[in-house]
Amino acid sequence: MPIPPATRQSPPNIVIIYADDLGFGDLGCYGASGIPTPNLDQMAAEGVRFTNFYATAATCTPSRYSLLTGSYPWRNPRAHILDGDAPIIIGPDELTLPGALKRAGYATSVVGKWHLGLGDGKIDWNGEIRPAPVDVGFDESFVMAATNDRVPSVFVKDRRVHDLDPNDPLEVFYGKENPFPEVPTGRSHPERLTLLHGDQQHFDTIVNGVPRIGFCRGGKAATWDDTTMADVFLERAKDFITRRQAGPFFLYLALHQPHVPRIPSARFKGASAKGARGDVIMELDWMVGEVLAHLRALGIAENTVVVFSSDNGPILLDGYQDRADELTGEHRPCGPLRGGKYSLFDGGTRVPTIVWAPGRVQPGESHALLSQLDFLASFSHLAGVPLAEAERADGLQLAEAILGKTDRGRESLVTEGIGSKTLVREANWVYIPPYPGDAFVTNKAVESGTAPEPQLYDLSADVGQRANLAAAQPGRVRAMGALLESIRARRGPVV
Ligand code: NG6
Ligand code: CA
Question: Which CATH code for domain 10-159+223-402?
Protein backbone atom coordinates (compact mmCIF):
# COMPACT_ATOMS: atom_id res chain seq x y z
CA MET A 1 0.00 0.00 0.00
CA PRO A 2 1.47 3.42 -0.87
CA ILE A 3 2.29 5.61 2.13
CA PRO A 4 -0.08 8.59 2.30
CA PRO A 5 1.82 11.84 1.62
CA ALA A 6 1.10 13.34 5.06
CA THR A 7 2.85 10.41 6.75
CA ARG A 8 5.67 10.38 4.27
CA GLN A 9 6.31 14.07 4.80
CA SER A 10 6.25 14.34 8.56
CA PRO A 11 7.96 15.16 10.73
CA PRO A 12 10.38 17.16 8.59
CA ASN A 13 14.08 17.53 9.17
CA ILE A 14 14.84 21.10 10.18
CA VAL A 15 18.03 22.97 9.31
CA ILE A 16 18.70 26.52 10.45
CA ILE A 17 21.64 28.18 8.70
CA TYR A 18 22.47 31.34 10.61
CA ALA A 19 24.81 33.98 9.22
CA ASP A 20 26.74 36.33 11.50
CA ASP A 21 26.31 40.08 10.81
CA LEU A 22 24.77 39.66 7.35
CA GLY A 23 22.63 42.65 6.36
CA PHE A 24 19.22 43.07 4.78
CA GLY A 25 20.84 44.34 1.57
CA ASP A 26 23.78 41.94 1.31
CA LEU A 27 22.29 39.30 -1.00
CA GLY A 28 21.41 39.47 -4.66
CA CYS A 29 17.88 38.29 -3.88
CA TYR A 30 17.52 41.30 -1.58
CA GLY A 31 18.64 43.76 -4.22
CA ALA A 32 22.43 43.68 -3.97
CA SER A 33 24.35 43.74 -7.22
CA GLY A 34 27.98 43.99 -6.11
CA ILE A 35 28.49 40.63 -4.42
CA PRO A 36 27.41 37.49 -6.30
CA THR A 37 25.28 35.17 -4.15
CA PRO A 38 23.95 32.69 -6.70
CA ASN A 39 23.15 29.90 -4.24
CA LEU A 40 21.10 32.02 -1.88
CA ASP A 41 19.40 33.68 -4.85
CA GLN A 42 18.45 30.24 -6.14
CA MET A 43 17.29 29.18 -2.68
CA ALA A 44 15.07 32.27 -2.57
CA ALA A 45 13.74 31.57 -6.07
CA GLU A 46 12.73 28.07 -4.97
CA GLY A 47 11.56 29.08 -1.50
CA VAL A 48 9.97 31.96 0.38
CA ARG A 49 11.84 35.23 0.72
CA PHE A 50 10.78 37.28 3.76
CA THR A 51 10.84 41.06 3.98
CA ASN A 52 9.78 41.57 7.61
CA PHE A 53 11.66 38.89 9.52
CA TYR A 54 13.49 40.05 12.65
CA ALA A 55 16.25 38.87 14.92
CA THR A 56 15.44 39.91 18.48
CA ALA A 57 18.65 41.90 18.90
CA ALA A 58 21.22 43.91 16.99
CA THR A 59 24.03 41.80 18.44
CA CYS A 60 24.88 38.15 18.50
CA THR A 61 24.45 36.56 21.93
CA PRO A 62 20.98 37.96 22.62
CA SER A 63 19.65 36.99 19.18
CA ARG A 64 21.04 33.46 19.48
CA TYR A 65 19.56 33.12 22.94
CA SER A 66 16.11 33.98 21.58
CA LEU A 67 16.45 31.71 18.56
CA LEU A 68 17.07 28.72 20.81
CA THR A 69 14.77 29.55 23.76
CA GLY A 70 11.91 31.63 22.36
CA SER A 71 12.53 34.19 25.13
CA TYR A 72 13.21 37.85 24.62
CA PRO A 73 16.86 38.42 25.52
CA TRP A 74 16.23 41.41 27.78
CA ARG A 75 14.39 39.07 30.17
CA ASN A 76 17.78 37.46 30.84
CA PRO A 77 20.26 39.95 32.34
CA ARG A 78 23.19 37.83 31.11
CA ALA A 79 22.15 37.90 27.44
CA HIS A 80 24.67 40.42 26.13
CA ILE A 81 27.84 39.99 24.03
CA LEU A 82 29.83 37.37 25.95
CA ASP A 83 33.54 36.89 26.46
CA GLY A 84 35.09 33.64 25.26
CA ASP A 85 35.19 32.22 28.81
CA ALA A 86 31.72 33.35 29.95
CA PRO A 87 29.43 30.83 31.64
CA ILE A 88 26.47 29.43 29.76
CA ILE A 89 23.40 31.70 29.85
CA ILE A 90 20.74 29.10 29.01
CA GLY A 91 19.34 27.82 32.30
CA PRO A 92 19.14 24.08 33.02
CA ASP A 93 15.34 24.29 33.20
CA GLU A 94 14.90 26.35 30.04
CA LEU A 95 13.34 24.55 27.10
CA THR A 96 15.32 24.98 23.89
CA LEU A 97 14.34 24.32 20.31
CA PRO A 98 16.53 21.18 20.05
CA GLY A 99 15.30 20.07 23.48
CA ALA A 100 11.70 20.32 22.30
CA LEU A 101 12.43 18.49 19.04
CA LYS A 102 14.10 15.67 20.93
CA ARG A 103 10.69 14.89 22.44
CA ALA A 104 9.70 13.81 18.92
CA GLY A 105 12.85 11.74 18.48
CA TYR A 106 14.91 14.26 16.52
CA ALA A 107 18.68 13.88 16.38
CA THR A 108 20.08 17.35 17.15
CA SER A 109 23.38 19.02 16.36
CA VAL A 110 24.99 22.45 16.48
CA VAL A 111 27.93 23.29 14.25
CA GLY A 112 29.67 26.67 14.15
CA LYS A 113 29.45 29.72 16.35
CA TRP A 114 27.99 29.19 19.82
CA HIS A 115 28.48 32.45 21.79
CA LEU A 116 26.03 31.48 24.52
CA GLY A 117 28.65 30.67 27.13
CA LEU A 118 30.19 27.41 28.33
CA GLY A 119 30.61 25.93 31.79
CA ASP A 120 29.29 27.36 35.01
CA GLY A 121 32.04 29.71 36.07
CA LYS A 122 35.65 28.77 35.80
CA ILE A 123 36.21 26.61 32.72
CA ASP A 124 38.95 24.00 32.66
CA TRP A 125 39.74 24.08 28.96
CA ASN A 126 41.78 20.90 29.41
CA GLY A 127 39.08 18.86 31.07
CA GLU A 128 35.37 18.31 30.57
CA ILE A 129 33.30 21.39 29.87
CA ARG A 130 29.94 21.28 31.60
CA PRO A 131 27.34 22.64 30.94
CA ALA A 132 27.91 22.66 27.20
CA PRO A 133 25.56 22.66 24.18
CA VAL A 134 25.08 18.91 24.80
CA ASP A 135 23.45 19.84 28.12
CA VAL A 136 20.84 22.17 26.62
CA GLY A 137 19.26 19.97 23.97
CA PHE A 138 21.96 19.09 21.45
CA ASP A 139 23.04 15.47 21.02
CA GLU A 140 26.30 16.63 19.56
CA SER A 141 28.15 19.86 19.03
CA PHE A 142 31.17 21.23 17.21
CA VAL A 143 31.51 24.92 17.99
CA MET A 144 33.71 27.91 18.52
CA ALA A 145 33.06 29.20 22.05
CA ALA A 146 32.35 32.83 21.22
CA THR A 147 33.36 34.79 18.13
CA ASN A 148 36.20 34.49 15.66
CA ASP A 149 37.72 37.66 17.12
CA ARG A 150 37.73 36.28 20.68
CA VAL A 151 39.99 33.68 22.25
CA PRO A 152 40.13 30.76 22.65
CA SER A 153 40.68 30.18 18.92
CA VAL A 154 39.84 26.51 19.16
CA PHE A 155 36.86 24.30 18.44
CA VAL A 156 34.98 22.59 21.23
CA LYS A 157 33.59 19.18 20.33
CA ASP A 158 30.88 18.08 22.75
CA ARG A 159 32.63 18.57 26.11
CA ARG A 160 36.25 18.91 25.07
CA VAL A 161 38.58 21.18 23.16
CA HIS A 162 39.06 19.44 19.84
CA ASP A 163 42.56 18.20 18.99
CA LEU A 164 44.05 19.43 22.26
CA ASP A 165 47.46 18.05 23.15
CA PRO A 166 47.36 17.27 26.89
CA ASN A 167 51.04 18.20 27.10
CA ASP A 168 50.26 21.72 25.91
CA PRO A 169 47.41 22.89 28.13
CA LEU A 170 45.21 25.78 27.05
CA GLU A 171 44.72 28.76 29.35
CA VAL A 172 42.36 31.66 28.70
CA PHE A 173 42.11 35.00 30.45
CA TYR A 174 39.87 38.04 30.03
CA GLY A 175 41.00 41.21 31.77
CA LYS A 176 43.18 44.25 31.25
CA GLU A 177 46.71 42.92 31.68
CA ASN A 178 48.28 40.07 29.76
CA PRO A 179 48.97 37.37 32.38
CA PHE A 180 51.12 35.42 29.89
CA PRO A 181 54.19 37.64 29.38
CA GLU A 182 55.79 35.30 26.84
CA VAL A 183 52.74 35.47 24.57
CA PRO A 184 52.86 38.27 21.98
CA THR A 185 49.91 40.63 21.82
CA GLY A 186 48.90 43.26 19.31
CA ARG A 187 50.03 45.85 21.82
CA SER A 188 53.45 44.37 22.62
CA HIS A 189 54.35 43.05 19.16
CA PRO A 190 52.58 45.05 16.45
CA GLU A 191 55.24 43.85 13.98
CA ARG A 192 53.79 40.33 14.30
CA LEU A 193 50.39 41.37 12.96
CA THR A 194 51.04 39.78 9.61
CA LEU A 195 47.44 39.39 8.50
CA LEU A 196 45.32 42.15 10.08
CA HIS A 197 45.68 45.11 12.40
CA GLY A 198 43.12 45.62 15.15
CA ASP A 199 41.80 48.54 17.16
CA GLN A 200 42.27 49.14 20.89
CA GLN A 201 39.82 46.33 21.76
CA HIS A 202 41.26 43.83 19.29
CA PHE A 203 44.76 44.08 20.60
CA ASP A 204 45.37 41.10 22.82
CA THR A 205 46.82 37.65 22.01
CA ILE A 206 47.95 37.26 18.40
CA VAL A 207 46.62 34.10 16.77
CA ASN A 208 47.53 33.36 13.13
CA GLY A 209 48.87 36.89 12.65
CA VAL A 210 45.61 38.46 13.91
CA PRO A 211 45.16 40.17 17.30
CA ARG A 212 42.10 38.86 19.16
CA ILE A 213 40.03 39.98 22.13
CA GLY A 214 41.28 38.20 25.27
CA PHE A 215 44.48 36.42 26.23
CA CYS A 216 45.42 32.78 25.86
CA ARG A 217 48.40 30.49 25.78
CA GLY A 218 49.02 26.85 24.92
CA GLY A 219 46.67 24.62 22.98
CA LYS A 220 48.75 25.02 19.82
CA ALA A 221 47.61 21.79 18.14
CA ALA A 222 43.99 22.74 18.79
CA THR A 223 44.26 26.24 17.33
CA TRP A 224 42.01 26.73 14.34
CA ASP A 225 43.15 27.87 10.93
CA ASP A 226 40.92 30.79 9.95
CA THR A 227 41.37 30.01 6.26
CA THR A 228 39.87 26.51 6.56
CA MET A 229 37.09 27.29 9.04
CA ALA A 230 34.41 27.29 6.33
CA ASP A 231 35.46 23.83 5.11
CA VAL A 232 35.66 22.47 8.64
CA PHE A 233 32.14 23.62 9.57
CA LEU A 234 30.73 22.48 6.21
CA GLU A 235 32.24 19.00 6.57
CA ARG A 236 30.91 18.65 10.12
CA ALA A 237 27.44 19.74 9.01
CA LYS A 238 27.38 17.38 6.03
CA ASP A 239 28.69 14.53 8.14
CA PHE A 240 25.84 14.97 10.67
CA ILE A 241 23.25 15.06 7.87
CA THR A 242 24.75 11.94 6.28
CA ARG A 243 24.76 10.01 9.56
CA ARG A 244 21.25 11.09 10.47
CA GLN A 245 19.70 11.06 7.01
CA ALA A 246 17.04 8.56 8.13
CA GLY A 247 15.71 11.52 10.15
CA PRO A 248 14.17 13.31 11.71
CA PHE A 249 17.07 15.62 12.52
CA PHE A 250 17.65 19.21 13.54
CA LEU A 251 20.85 20.97 12.50
CA TYR A 252 21.72 24.44 13.75
CA LEU A 253 24.55 25.54 11.44
CA ALA A 254 25.81 28.84 12.78
CA LEU A 255 28.23 30.27 10.26
CA HIS A 256 31.00 32.71 11.16
CA GLN A 257 30.68 34.89 8.05
CA PRO A 258 30.79 37.84 7.54
CA HIS A 259 31.83 38.58 11.14
CA VAL A 260 35.33 39.97 11.73
CA PRO A 261 38.09 38.98 11.26
CA ARG A 262 37.09 38.26 7.67
CA ILE A 263 39.56 35.68 6.41
CA PRO A 264 38.32 33.83 3.33
CA SER A 265 39.58 30.44 2.27
CA ALA A 266 41.97 30.38 -0.69
CA ARG A 267 39.02 29.48 -2.96
CA PHE A 268 37.31 32.81 -2.25
CA LYS A 269 40.21 35.16 -1.62
CA GLY A 270 39.73 38.06 -4.02
CA ALA A 271 36.62 36.47 -5.54
CA SER A 272 34.27 39.41 -4.99
CA ALA A 273 36.33 42.44 -5.99
CA LYS A 274 34.78 43.99 -2.86
CA GLY A 275 37.47 43.05 -0.39
CA ALA A 276 37.37 40.40 2.31
CA ARG A 277 33.80 41.15 3.40
CA GLY A 278 32.52 40.45 -0.09
CA ASP A 279 34.72 37.35 -0.37
CA VAL A 280 33.41 35.78 2.83
CA ILE A 281 29.80 36.52 1.83
CA MET A 282 30.50 34.56 -1.36
CA GLU A 283 32.04 31.82 0.74
CA LEU A 284 28.94 31.74 2.96
CA ASP A 285 26.75 31.58 -0.13
CA TRP A 286 28.77 28.63 -1.40
CA MET A 287 28.37 26.81 1.93
CA VAL A 288 24.60 27.20 1.78
CA GLY A 289 24.61 25.80 -1.76
CA GLU A 290 26.69 22.83 -0.61
CA VAL A 291 24.27 22.03 2.21
CA LEU A 292 21.25 22.16 -0.10
CA ALA A 293 23.06 20.04 -2.71
CA HIS A 294 23.91 17.51 -0.03
CA LEU A 295 20.27 17.23 1.06
CA ARG A 296 19.30 16.76 -2.57
CA ALA A 297 22.01 14.17 -3.21
CA LEU A 298 20.79 12.13 -0.25
CA GLY A 299 17.23 12.36 -1.54
CA ILE A 300 15.94 14.03 1.63
CA ALA A 301 15.39 17.60 0.42
CA GLU A 302 11.64 16.90 0.05
CA ASN A 303 11.36 16.19 3.73
CA THR A 304 13.55 18.99 5.03
CA VAL A 305 12.79 22.59 5.94
CA VAL A 306 15.82 24.84 5.63
CA VAL A 307 15.76 28.33 7.12
CA PHE A 308 18.47 30.83 6.29
CA SER A 309 18.73 33.97 8.41
CA SER A 310 21.18 36.27 10.20
CA ASP A 311 21.74 37.13 13.88
CA ASN A 312 21.93 40.89 13.42
CA GLY A 313 22.51 43.58 10.85
CA PRO A 314 25.71 44.43 9.01
CA ILE A 315 28.74 46.49 9.89
CA LEU A 316 31.71 47.45 7.76
CA LEU A 317 34.45 48.29 10.25
CA ASP A 318 34.16 46.29 13.48
CA GLY A 319 37.60 46.40 14.98
CA TYR A 320 39.99 45.43 12.19
CA GLN A 321 41.60 47.48 9.49
CA ASP A 322 40.32 45.41 6.57
CA ARG A 323 39.23 48.44 4.48
CA ALA A 324 35.68 47.07 4.26
CA ASP A 325 34.34 50.62 4.13
CA GLU A 326 36.28 51.80 1.07
CA LEU A 327 36.21 48.44 -0.77
CA THR A 328 32.47 48.02 -0.37
CA GLY A 329 31.88 50.92 -2.79
CA GLU A 330 28.27 51.30 -3.89
CA HIS A 331 27.11 48.09 -2.20
CA ARG A 332 24.67 48.89 0.64
CA PRO A 333 24.80 46.12 3.26
CA CYS A 334 21.56 47.36 4.86
CA GLY A 335 19.77 47.94 1.57
CA PRO A 336 17.22 50.69 2.15
CA LEU A 337 17.25 50.33 5.94
CA ARG A 338 18.83 52.74 8.42
CA GLY A 339 21.41 51.78 11.05
CA GLY A 340 23.16 48.42 11.16
CA LYS A 341 24.66 46.08 13.74
CA TYR A 342 24.24 47.46 17.31
CA SER A 343 21.60 49.98 16.17
CA LEU A 344 18.01 50.49 17.28
CA PHE A 345 17.07 51.35 13.73
CA ASP A 346 15.71 48.55 11.54
CA GLY A 347 19.09 47.83 9.95
CA GLY A 348 20.12 46.31 13.29
CA THR A 349 17.54 43.54 13.42
CA ARG A 350 15.57 43.19 10.19
CA VAL A 351 17.47 40.40 8.47
CA PRO A 352 17.41 38.51 5.19
CA THR A 353 15.44 35.31 5.79
CA ILE A 354 14.68 32.54 3.32
CA VAL A 355 12.71 29.35 3.93
CA TRP A 356 13.33 26.50 1.50
CA ALA A 357 11.37 23.27 1.61
CA PRO A 358 10.86 21.72 -1.81
CA GLY A 359 7.38 20.31 -2.17
CA ARG A 360 6.30 21.89 1.09
CA VAL A 361 6.46 25.60 0.29
CA GLN A 362 5.40 27.44 -2.81
CA PRO A 363 8.08 29.78 -4.14
CA GLY A 364 7.24 33.38 -3.38
CA GLU A 365 7.70 36.36 -1.16
CA SER A 366 6.15 37.06 2.24
CA HIS A 367 5.67 40.35 4.06
CA ALA A 368 4.47 38.65 7.25
CA LEU A 369 5.88 40.19 10.40
CA LEU A 370 7.91 37.47 12.11
CA SER A 371 10.58 37.05 14.74
CA GLN A 372 13.19 34.38 15.32
CA LEU A 373 11.47 34.08 18.72
CA ASP A 374 8.82 32.06 16.90
CA PHE A 375 11.11 29.22 15.78
CA LEU A 376 10.71 27.23 19.00
CA ALA A 377 6.90 27.23 19.01
CA SER A 378 6.54 26.93 15.23
CA PHE A 379 9.05 24.13 14.61
CA SER A 380 7.81 22.22 17.65
CA HIS A 381 4.38 22.38 16.04
CA LEU A 382 5.75 21.12 12.70
CA ALA A 383 7.43 18.27 14.55
CA GLY A 384 4.18 17.38 16.29
CA VAL A 385 5.46 18.35 19.75
CA PRO A 386 2.79 20.03 21.85
CA LEU A 387 4.19 22.80 24.05
CA ALA A 388 2.71 24.13 27.26
CA GLU A 389 2.03 27.85 27.07
CA ALA A 390 4.92 28.66 29.40
CA GLU A 391 7.29 26.60 27.22
CA ARG A 392 6.58 28.79 24.20
CA ALA A 393 8.05 31.64 26.23
CA ASP A 394 7.60 34.80 24.13
CA GLY A 395 7.26 32.92 20.86
CA LEU A 396 4.16 32.34 18.80
CA GLN A 397 3.18 29.27 16.82
CA LEU A 398 3.30 30.72 13.32
CA ALA A 399 4.37 27.71 11.26
CA GLU A 400 1.95 28.55 8.44
CA ALA A 401 3.47 32.01 8.08
CA ILE A 402 7.02 30.66 8.30
CA LEU A 403 6.20 28.25 5.48
CA GLY A 404 4.80 31.16 3.45
CA LYS A 405 1.26 29.78 3.40
CA THR A 406 -0.19 32.93 4.92
CA ASP A 407 0.86 36.55 5.26
CA ARG A 408 -0.63 36.66 8.75
CA GLY A 409 2.30 36.81 11.12
CA ARG A 410 2.70 38.75 14.33
CA GLU A 411 0.90 41.94 15.18
CA SER A 412 3.87 43.28 17.09
CA LEU A 413 7.38 42.45 18.22
CA VAL A 414 10.12 43.93 20.34
CA THR A 415 13.76 44.24 19.32
CA GLU A 416 16.79 45.58 21.14
CA GLY A 417 19.85 47.59 20.20
CA ILE A 418 23.16 47.40 22.03
CA GLY A 419 22.79 47.80 25.78
CA SER A 420 19.39 46.01 25.80
CA LYS A 421 17.57 49.19 24.77
CA THR A 422 14.19 48.00 23.55
CA LEU A 423 11.76 49.31 20.96
CA VAL A 424 8.53 48.03 19.52
CA ARG A 425 7.17 47.45 16.04
CA GLU A 426 3.42 47.12 15.55
CA ALA A 427 2.08 46.58 12.02
CA ASN A 428 4.13 49.10 10.00
CA TRP A 429 4.89 51.43 12.90
CA VAL A 430 8.08 51.58 14.93
CA TYR A 431 8.30 53.34 18.27
CA ILE A 432 11.69 53.98 19.89
CA PRO A 433 11.47 55.40 23.42
CA PRO A 434 13.79 58.26 24.39
CA TYR A 435 17.24 57.01 25.42
CA PRO A 436 20.35 58.88 26.53
CA GLY A 437 23.53 58.33 24.54
CA ASP A 438 25.41 59.35 21.45
CA ALA A 439 23.95 59.36 17.98
CA PHE A 440 26.73 56.97 16.91
CA VAL A 441 27.82 53.70 18.49
CA THR A 442 31.13 54.22 20.30
CA ASN A 443 34.03 53.78 17.87
CA LYS A 444 31.74 52.58 15.08
CA ALA A 445 30.43 54.33 11.99
CA VAL A 446 26.90 53.15 12.84
CA GLU A 447 23.99 55.26 14.01
CA SER A 448 22.90 54.06 17.44
CA GLY A 449 19.25 54.97 16.89
CA THR A 450 19.03 56.57 20.33
CA ALA A 451 17.67 60.08 20.78
CA PRO A 452 16.59 62.11 23.80
CA GLU A 453 13.08 62.44 22.36
CA PRO A 454 10.62 59.71 21.34
CA GLN A 455 10.84 58.44 17.76
CA LEU A 456 7.95 57.16 15.68
CA TYR A 457 8.31 55.90 12.12
CA ASP A 458 5.83 54.71 9.54
CA LEU A 459 7.72 51.99 7.65
CA SER A 460 5.05 51.71 4.96
CA ALA A 461 5.93 55.21 3.73
CA ASP A 462 9.41 55.59 5.17
CA VAL A 463 11.40 52.36 5.26
CA GLY A 464 14.59 54.37 5.84
CA GLN A 465 13.25 55.85 9.09
CA ARG A 466 13.94 59.47 8.18
CA ALA A 467 10.72 61.22 9.23
CA ASN A 468 10.13 61.16 12.98
CA LEU A 469 6.35 61.47 13.40
CA ALA A 470 6.33 61.38 17.21
CA ALA A 471 5.49 65.05 17.72
CA ALA A 472 2.64 64.84 15.20
CA GLN A 473 1.12 61.66 16.65
CA PRO A 474 1.27 61.81 20.46
CA GLY A 475 -1.63 59.35 20.80
CA ARG A 476 0.19 56.66 18.85
CA VAL A 477 3.37 57.33 20.79
CA ARG A 478 1.47 56.81 24.06
CA ALA A 479 -0.24 53.65 22.82
CA MET A 480 2.95 52.09 21.51
CA GLY A 481 4.81 53.06 24.67
CA ALA A 482 2.11 51.24 26.64
CA LEU A 483 2.34 48.23 24.31
CA LEU A 484 6.10 48.01 24.87
CA GLU A 485 5.59 48.24 28.62
CA SER A 486 2.96 45.51 28.58
CA ILE A 487 5.19 43.14 26.60
CA ARG A 488 8.05 43.87 28.96
CA ALA A 489 5.82 43.23 31.96
CA ARG A 490 4.68 39.75 30.98
CA ARG A 491 5.51 36.89 28.69
CA GLY A 492 3.29 35.49 26.02
CA PRO A 493 1.01 36.89 23.37
CA VAL A 494 -0.38 40.37 23.90
CA VAL A 495 -4.11 40.21 24.61
C1 NG6 B 1 32.28 43.69 20.16
C2 NG6 B 1 33.51 43.71 19.30
C3 NG6 B 1 33.16 43.33 17.89
C4 NG6 B 1 32.36 42.07 17.84
C5 NG6 B 1 31.19 42.17 18.78
C6 NG6 B 1 30.40 40.91 18.86
C7 NG6 B 1 34.91 45.50 20.12
C8 NG6 B 1 35.23 46.93 19.99
N9 NG6 B 1 34.02 45.04 19.29
O10 NG6 B 1 32.62 43.90 21.49
O11 NG6 B 1 34.30 43.22 17.08
O12 NG6 B 1 33.15 40.97 18.19
O13 NG6 B 1 31.63 42.45 20.08
O14 NG6 B 1 29.75 40.69 17.66
O15 NG6 B 1 35.44 44.80 20.96
S16 NG6 B 1 28.55 39.73 17.66
O17 NG6 B 1 28.07 39.70 16.29
O18 NG6 B 1 29.07 38.47 18.10
O19 NG6 B 1 27.57 40.31 18.56
CA1 CA C 1 26.53 38.80 14.92
Answer: 3.40.720.10
Does 189 participate in catalysis according to the annotation? no
| pLDDT of amino acid 1 | 44
Q: Which CATH class is domain 412-489?
A: alpha beta
Closest atom of ligand 1 relative to the 202 alpha carbon: 15
Question: In the predicted model, is pLDDT for residue 495 greater than 80?
Answer: no
- Catalytic residue selected from 60, 80, 202, 216: 60
The residue whose C-alpha atom lies closest to atom 16 belonging to ligand 1 is: 60
For residue 198, the model assigns a pLDDT of: 87
Indicate if 60 belongs to the active site: yes
How many Å apart are CA 317 and CA 139, to the nearest integer? 36
Ranges of CATH 3.30.1120.10 domains, the chain = 412-489
Q: What is the pLDDT of residues 405-432, one digit of tens each?
A: 999 999 999 999 999 999 999 999 999 9
List pLDDT tens digits, range 234-253: 999 999 999 999 999 999 99
State residue 292's pLDDT score. 98
pLDDT of 219 reads: 98
User: How do residues 43-84 score in pLDDT, each as one tens digit?
Assistant: 999 999 999 999 999 999 999 999 999 999 999 999 999 999
Confidence at residue 492, expressed as pLDDT on a 0 to 100 scale: 59
Q: List CB contacts of 46: < 8 A, sequence separation 6 or more.
A: 356, 358, 363
Q: Where in the chain is the domain with CATH 3.40.720.10?
A: 10-159+223-402
Q: Give the per-residue pLDDT at 9.
A: 52
Q: Whose CA is nearest to atom 18 of ligand 1?
A: 60
Find the residues whose C-beta lies inside 6 A of ligand 1. Answer: 20-21, 59-60, 81, 115, 147, 149, 201, 213, 259-260, 312, 318-319
